[in-house]
Amino acid sequence: MRIAVTGKDGQVTRALQAAAGGAVVTVVALGRPELDLAQPDTILPALAAAAPDIIVNAAAWTAVDQAEAEPAQARAVNQTGARAVAEAAARLGVPIIQISTDYVFDGAKRSPYVETDPVGPTGAYGETKLAGEMAVAAAQPNHAILRTAWVFAPEGKNFVRAMLNLARSRPELGIVADQLGNPTYAPDIAAGIIAVARNLVADSRVDLRGVFHMTAGGETTWAGFAEAIFAGSRARGGPAAGVRPIATADYPTPARRPANSRLDCSKLEALHRVRLPSWPSGLERCLERLVPAEFSREAP
């Protein structure tokens, strides 16, 4: 199976490349300048040249706060660009997997969100990602939209790396403790994507298409996540800091964060037979790779 994935420098794309099994699964990562979601005319030629069996649109404008100041730029990538990728998939006659986000919900629900819950984004990032979902669905019915959340990996810009960097110079950190979510390890997302991709390529059943939630098992707060990061880092000889739980109101940001980002993934398990490991498992594997290489006491 040959997968073309947009966003060649992203956490999910890197994880997909690492998970590819050579002759079994080939991942062709495409990004700027040959494929630029903000330049729709680049999309079809680049994807056609990749000759994929399926396309994964993992590229996105993910700067949540910056999207509030630059909504047009976020929409150009997250909606217009996503539509162009889906249109290319339709032209090439291949399925598309669109990676989306918990930010399509307002976070007010008290229990984990299911796919049929009403959407209600509260900021430009969520609005443009939701518009992208709708554009993809309209342009290519042969699609799976995978919503995930709180993504982390050994590489890239993410909460785990940010916490370890801050712990190098600060003995205590104030971390938000009133937002709940499912931290999700990018390599686990990649394994899930490959499983869904195989199903879409091999099976034409309608119920394998549509919207699915795909996050790690278990839940925590940002403060709880930080405490687990530091405990795991400390055990491996890496940096650690104390965690002072704070409220969302004590850490104002331009974009409002959902108080509840938890996603119910039972539909994905029932139909695609995909269930991601727990977030503590993902964190352990992430720290095992990250701390000795970059954050040990001996690391430069």
What can you tell me about this protein's structure?
By secondary structure, the chain is an alpha/beta fold. The chain has a domain at 2-153 and 184-216 and 256-277: Rossmann fold (3-Layer(aba) Sandwich). It contains ten helices and twelve strands. A six-stranded parallel β-sheet has the order 2-1-3-4-5-10, sandwiched between helices. The protein has a two-stranded parallel ribbon with strand order 6-9. It has a two-stranded parallel ribbon with strand order 7-12. α4 runs parallel beside α5 (124-139). It starts with a strand and ends in a 5-residue tail after the last helix. The model has no long low-confidence stretch (mean pLDDT 95).
Major sheet details: 6 strands, parallel
Number of strands: 12
Mean pLDDT over the residues: 95
Q: How is the CATH topology of the domain at 2-153 and 184-216 and 256-277 named? A: Rossmann fold
Structural class: alpha/beta
* Tally of contiguous helical segments: 10
Kindly state the percentage of residues in helix: 40-55%
CATH homologous superfamily placement of the domain at 2-153 and 184-216 and 256-277:
NAD(P)-binding Rossmann-like Domain
H/E order of the elements?
A: EHEHEHHEHEEHEEEHEEHEHH
Round the Cα radius of gyration to an integer and report it: 19 Å
- Supply the CATH class of the domain at 2-153 and 184-216 and 256-277: Alpha Beta
Which percent band covers the strand fraction? Answer: 15-25%
Label the overall shape: globular
C-alpha termini separation: 40 Å
Q: Which residue ranges are poorly predicted, with pLDDT under 50 across at least 5 consecutive positions?
A: none
CATH architecture of the domain at 2-153 and 184-216 and 256-277: 3-Layer(aba) Sandwich
